[in-house]
Specification:
Layout lengths: L2 E6 L3 E6 L6 H7 L19 E6 L10 H7 L10 E3 L12 E5 L5
Parallel strand pairs: 1-5
Antiparallel strand pairs: 1-2, 3-4, 3-5
Bound molecules: FE2/S2 (inorganic) cluster.
Length: 107
């Protein structure tokens, strides 16, 4: 099972086993990691699952869709070049070693 590390509060690294098929948002919520809310249930309609992809298999991630990009313009924490909606990142075995920093402000 791939392991994903979430950096919460800007400094604490929490590594969890991520079930393939769940999104990076769902893995965080189910493991009570950080401040990810996932208010819309993963439909790219709320921007409360904002993360910054810091390292790992970045090339394995899907491209940012138009809908995701539109919502990333609505995040409370500033959008950066490595910003993603974690609900739009469906976990595969290729995600092993992924490190994401949870945006401090979600709602
Ligand atoms: S959970 Fe709503 S945009 Fe990701």
């Amino acid at each position: 099972m791939p392991k994903i590390t979430y950096i919460v509060d800007g400094q604490t690294a929490v590594t969890v086993d991520a079930a393939v098929g769940n999104s990076v948002m769902q893995v965080a919520v189910r493991n009570d990691v950080g401040s990810i809310v996932g208010e819309c249930g993963g439909n790219a309609m709320c921007a409360t699952c904002h993360v910054y992809v810091e390292e790992g298999p970045v090339d394995s991630l899907p491209a940012v869709s138009a809908a995701e990009s539109e919502m990333l313009d609505c995040t409370l924490s500033p959008r950066e070049s490595n910003s993603r909606l974690s609900c739009q990142l469906p976990v595969t075995d290729l995600y092993d070693g992924l490190v994401v920093r949870v945006a401090q402000e979600q709602v």
